[in-house]
Amino acid sequence: MSTVTKRTYSVPARAEVSANNQTIFDNLQKGLGFVPNLYAYFGKNETALGDYLTFQNRKSTLRAKEREVINLVTSQINGCRYCQSAHTALGKMNGFTDEQVLEIRTGQASFDRKIDALAKLTSSIVKNRGRASEESVESFFSEGYNEANLIDVVIVVGDKIISNYIHNLTQIEIDFPLAEEL
What we know:
Helices cover 62% and strands 0% of the residues. The protein contains nine helices and no strands.
């Protein structure tokens, strides 16, 4: 009977990535005060870090607070502890309380009807692989969202699935305060 050794993944140091990625590392260091481990891991690929950050930072019809709702719900459903932790910190920076962040991660937000509709739609999209329930879609639109917003919801879900899957595969060390488990 053979045993399979579990592969370990490492976060590259600045000197171990391309010149282009070193520049991105420097910009992240200046902007955030550190290079998050998951971003650094993307740096092992010549273009992935820049591509991902461009995708993540694209202009959106959704406010930063709304994008955090999508990030929190998606990361919870996908079981990504890194992204749950990072977006708990970012959610609080965007004005959510600890209690609100925990509730959002469950796919609802009793404290705000519009945020609740967004959380429920996101949950339905992720759980049903894009085939959201008619009820969640209609609730989303009845709260004032439009089709451009719907497209942006799906784009943010896609963005978050990328980082969720990279972390779920690699289990890179979490360098944010660890989010409470649900």
